[in-house]
């Protein structure tokens, strides 16, 4: 830490620069940089983030002592630059005080404007400006902000009105006027007195008249705000470390509310929604910055073109536009030209789209802020690719600038931005699978199908979903579950289908019997309309209109560019030809996981699956399996055709068998009737299959070990399908995968069944073909003994869902209950089922990679857990040297970009 805490900026001297963001915060660093570029910026000083750290550690008194001399020097610099004195009664120097951390944290703390005013200085300002109303309005605004932010005068309860606004309302009522602007200077004087009186009576302290006391109070309030609940929460959401601290910017005031040749505005160098390369923004004449944000008056457009476009949308006639809402370009052409020159200079300098704030004080343009502009995912892609084409940035920068996750927005339908603002938010859950969905609530999968068959749009609402619900999930527009995490069934399946899903919405009480869900006392019935935003986890009442996402040409260009940089191959998890097709269109170069059990729910094959489970002996099972064989073979043929020329990894049956049986009496009775056996028999078998902990029970390769005939049937189906497809001239690349292996003997036992079966088929057909036989590494033991397994298995695919579950001892389906507490308290930084726990689970992966390669040089290594689609995890998998990641089809483009970013970052 250096001894210097204060850095000044202004026309004659500037100590900071853009690359000092860590020390000066984004705002301070950019203000300094603009000064260096010769742009008119009101002079100021930035107190560094290191001072904030000292404040947090040692308190206000200590830091004030440390800062005192430097701040006084800084203020003296401002006085010289502005030709005014701080605290001067005749012509006071007024300042604003604003926070500014390394990362922008909008709304963390309110701004203090007009600091330096008091009972004497307000008269000076009135004389000097020749505008008494302006002076008193500035004073009352200052007291209001200071009273709230620094002195902490807040409403007494959350139902109460803001105490300052209450006084303003009273005054307006007394005067019979509607707007603040209708109050005259005497009213404002009365308001100031009332504000001060209230502060005294409510807080027992006077509003400080001394500008230095005002300044120190404000600086400490900004430091303090770094640790208020709002800021802490924001930091948690955005992974911003608390140790960063905030800087404080003290800047000379300029006024946009000094009459008709003053004003204030906000502009973007390109369009923040579409990314179009068009300068745009809004301004207000005779206003302070906060008025633009508050949206009380209709702002005008900066450019003539923007103004015409706006008038079109707002249905304002050209005459009204020209007379009531003219553009800045029309009414202040010279200022407009200066602004245009400045925005171009700023964008060229920063080589990124900028969001700028400006004030015009009596015909002079001042820049108050510039920062890299927040924009939609579509705009990110477009601005990056266009800036690359314009030669502003290089390929690596273009790739790194688009947050891979932001591509989500380009891949799924989205809610109409305006409509969603008006919608009533009723609940929140995990943003399990992105997209926007609107439909009528149904509580059962079969009813979802029935409703959809009648042409209705439905949202399937369940406590949680199981494979039995799959058909309902397929037809529903979206899925809402009250329980479950990001890798719960509903979430995984929905993402695989690219279907909108909100999971683990804790406030939703589902009563399937009554066919109702209750959210905070409000009852929603079957057939009621709701809307889900799978990207934010928000649930709205009623129908919120959606619009289709657009896949622009720039998106394709970005993907091509990513492919040139990435090393990891990107495959998809897909269980049907339809999913495989989507995946291939999105650029997947293979299937990394086909979960064969998902095929067991298609059509009426569930009947044969159940027959197999209920069979008394091997002969019974074999006869049921014989019925399944042709169906499975057909499924695989479809996949091989769709993925011609690319590898397809097919995993043998994995889930515990009871997942295929109904659990409630009504469905068990229906099944009994259909199969011609007694209800008791079925109930008995279901009870028999019950397990205390099914995720660690009779599943994975353990099924094939108990019932080798299942493995036999599946191996035969796979290899027959492959031979049939190959015979048609298709290039087929088969990889067969054994799930949940923990010891090499398990693998060997299954490998023998598979190889023997395949040899029989080869002999029957008088032909043969190459195939790979590998294993999932998804139990901790499997990872620990990866060297011995690697000698036998030709590839590893890390099942990081189960590996996480078993390494952490967290049930994938129950984390919703405790994970929020863990995340809040920072015990895990992120949901470990979403982003791989690099230090723990990651270590097992790393070790197994090394052991696997040592045992079998050239062994193919991939990952097929949900982490395969998570950018931070992809970065990790790149670093540990995997060959590929496999993710749900809709995440393939995200993974392609993330893999390129990982390669560039290394
Ligand atoms: C895994 O465990 O990571 C995996 C891919 O298998 P599943 O999710 O089907 O258990
Ligand atoms: Mg698994």
Automatic annotation (TrEMBL):
Origin: domain of life: Bacteria
Keyword Magnesium carried by entry: yes
All copies of domain Pyruvate phosphate dikinase AMP/ATP-binding, residue ranges: 22-389
Binding site for substrate: 595, 651, 778, 799-802
Reaction it catalyzes: pyruvate + phosphate + ATP = phosphoenolpyruvate + AMP + diphosphate + H(+)
Positions annotated as active site in the UniProt record: 489 (tele-phosphohistidine intermediate), 864 (proton donor)
Pfam families named among the record's database cross-references: PEP-utilizers (PF00391), PEP-utilizers_C (PF02896), PPDK_N (PF01326)
Residue span(s) of domain PEP-utilising enzyme C-terminal: 552-902
PROSITE patterns, sorted: PEP_ENZYMES_2 (PS00742), PEP_ENZYMES_PHOS_SITE (PS00370)
Protein name: Pyruvate, phosphate dikinase
Source organism (scientific name): Candidatus Propionivibrio aalborgensis
């Amino acid at each position: 830490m250096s001894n210097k805490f204060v850095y000044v900026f202004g026309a004659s001297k500037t100590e900071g620069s853009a690359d000092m963001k860590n020390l000066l915060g984004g705002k301070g660093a950019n203000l300094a940089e603009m000064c260096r570029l010769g742009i008119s910026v009101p002079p100021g000083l930035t107190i560094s983030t290191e001072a904030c750290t000292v404040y947090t550690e040692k308190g206000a008194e200590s830091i004030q002592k440390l800062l005192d001399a430097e701040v006084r020097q800084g203020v003296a610099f401002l006085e010289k630059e502005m030709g005014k004195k701080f605290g001067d009664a005749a012509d006071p120097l007024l300042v604003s005080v604003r926070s500014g951390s390394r990362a922008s944290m909008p709304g963390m703390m309110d701004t203090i404007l007009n600091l330096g005013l008091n009972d004497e200085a307000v008269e000076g300002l009135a004389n000097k400006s020749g505008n008494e109303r302006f002076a008193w309005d500035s004073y009352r605004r200052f007291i209001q902000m200071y009273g709230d932010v620094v002195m902490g005068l807040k409403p007494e309860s959350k139902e109460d009105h803001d105490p300052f606004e209450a006084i303003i309302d009273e005054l307006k009522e007394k005067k019979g006027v509607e707007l603040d602007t209708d109050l005259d200077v005497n009213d404002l004087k009365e308001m100031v007195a009332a504000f001060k009186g209230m502060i005294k009576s409510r807080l027992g302290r006077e509003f400080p008249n001394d500008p230095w006391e005002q300044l120190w109070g404000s600086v400490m309030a900004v430091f303090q705000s770094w640790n208020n609940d709002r800021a802490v929460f924001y930091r948690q959401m955005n992974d911003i470390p608390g140790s960063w601290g905030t800087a404080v910017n003290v800047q000379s005031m300029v006024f946009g509310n000094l009459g008709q040749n003053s004003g204030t505005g906000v502009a973007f160098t390109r369009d923040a929604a579409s990314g179009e390369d068009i300068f745009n923004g809004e301004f207000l004449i005779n206003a302070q910055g906060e008025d633009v944000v508050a949206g009380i008056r209709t702002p005008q457009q900066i450019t003539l073109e923007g103004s015409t476009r706006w008038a079109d949308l707002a249905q304002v006639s050209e005459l009204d536009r020209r007379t009531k809402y003219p553009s800045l370009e029309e009414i202040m052409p010279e200022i407009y030209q200066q602004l245009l020159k400045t925005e171009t200079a700023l964008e060229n300098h920063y080589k990124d789209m900028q969001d700028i704030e400006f004030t015009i004080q009596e015909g002079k343009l001042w820049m108050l802020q510039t920062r890299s502009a927040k924009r939609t995912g579509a705009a990110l892609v477009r601005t990056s690719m266009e800036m690359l084409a314009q030669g502003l940035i290089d390929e690596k920068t273009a790739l790194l600038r688009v947050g891979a996750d932001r591509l989500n927005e380009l891949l799924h339908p989205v809610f109409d931005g305006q409509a969603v603002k008006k919608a009533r938010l009723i609940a929140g859950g995990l943003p399990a699978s992105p997209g926007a969905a609107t439909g009528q609530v149904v509580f059962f999968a079969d009813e979802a199908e029935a409703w959809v068959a009648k042409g209705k749009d439905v949202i399937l609402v369940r406590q949680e979903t199981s494979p039995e619900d799959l058909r309902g999930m397929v037809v529903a527009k979206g899925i809402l579950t009250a329980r479950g995490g990001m890798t719960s069934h509903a979430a995984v399946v929905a993402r695989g289908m690219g279907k909108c899903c909100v999971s683990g919405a804790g406030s939703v009480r589902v009563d399937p019997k009554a066919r109702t869900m209750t959210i905070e006392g409000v009852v929603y019935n079957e057939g009621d309309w709701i809307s889900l935003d799978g990207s934010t986890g928000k649930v709205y009442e009623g129908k919120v209109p959606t619009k289709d996402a657009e896949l622009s040409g720039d998106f394709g260009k970005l993907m091509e560019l990513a492919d040139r940089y990435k090393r990891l191959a990107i495959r998809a998890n897909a269980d049907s030809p339809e999913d495989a097709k989507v995946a291939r269109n999105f650029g997947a170069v293979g299937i990394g996981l086909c979960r064969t059990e998902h095929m067991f729910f298609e059509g009426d094959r569930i009947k044969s699956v159940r027959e197999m489970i209920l069979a008394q002996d091997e002969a019974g099972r074999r006869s049921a399996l014989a019925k399944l064989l042709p169906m499975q073979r057909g499924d695989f043929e479809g996949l091989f055709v769709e993925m011609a020329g690319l590898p397809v990894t097919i995993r043998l049956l994995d889930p515990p068998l009871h997942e295929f049986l109904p659990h409630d009496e009504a469905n068990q009775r229906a099944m009994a009737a259909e199969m011609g056996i007694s209800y008791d028999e079925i109930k008995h078998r279901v009870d028999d299959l019950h397990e205390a902990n099914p995720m660690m029970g009779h599943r994975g390769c353990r099924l094939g070990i108990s019932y080798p005939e299942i493995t036999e049937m599946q191996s035969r189906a796979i290899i027959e399908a492959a031979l049939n497809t190959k015979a048609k001239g298709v290039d087929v690349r088969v990889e067969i995968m054994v799930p949940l292996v923990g010891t090499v003997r398990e693998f060997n036992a299954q490998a023998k069944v598979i190889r023997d079966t395949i040899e029989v088929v080869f002999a029957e057909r008088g032909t043969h073909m190459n195939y790979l036989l590998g294993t999932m590494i998804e139990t901790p033991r499997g990872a620990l003994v990866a060297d011995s397994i690697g000698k036998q298995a030709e590839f590893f695919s890390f099942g990081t869902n189960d590996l996480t579950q078993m390494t952490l001892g967290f049930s994938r389906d129950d984390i919703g209950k405790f994970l929020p507490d863990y995340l809040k308290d920072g015990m895990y930084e992120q949901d470990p089922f979403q982003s791989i726990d690099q230090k723990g689970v990651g270590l097992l992966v790393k070790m197994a990679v090394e052991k696997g390669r040592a045992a079998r040089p050239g062994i193919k290594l991939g990952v097929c857990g949900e982490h395969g689609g998570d950018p931070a995890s992809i970065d990790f998998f790149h670093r540990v040297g995997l060959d590929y990641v496999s993710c749900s089809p809709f995440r393939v483009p995200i993974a392609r970009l993330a893999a390129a970013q990982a390669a560039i970052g290394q």
